[in-house]
Amino acid sequence: GCGLCVAFCPPGVLALDANSHPVVAAPEKCTACHWCDTHCPDLAIVVKKLDA
């Protein structure tokens, strides 16, 4: 991945794995702001609400 989502995620939810793919590293920090999915140039991210 390009890492744009990781670099600009306001609460720092995402990280790059060993293959440079974005992964959810801290799901508890997600505020569902949708910055990552609205700015992803490849439309590769979808934010979904999880049931508690």
Q: Any overview of this molecule?
A:
19% of the residues lie in helices and 12% in strands. Strands 1-2 form a two-stranded antiparallel ribbon. The protein has a single domain (1-52), classed as Alpha-Beta Plaits, CATH 3.30.70.20. It has 52 residues and is of the alpha+beta class. The protein contains two helices and two strands.
CATH architecture: 2-Layer Sandwich
Shape: globular
Largest sheet: 2 strands, antiparallel
The percentage of residues in β strands lies in 5-15%
Number of E-type strands: 2
Nearest-integer average pLDDT: 91
Count up the domains.
1
SSE arrangement, N to C: HEEH
CATH class: Alpha Beta
Low-confidence spans = none
Strand order of the largest sheet: 1-2
CATH topology, anyone? Alpha-Beta Plaits
Q: How far apart lie the N and C ends? A: 29 Å
Oligomer: single chain
Quick tags:
52 residues; alpha+beta; Alpha-Beta Plaits; two-stranded antiparallel ribbon; 2 strands; globular
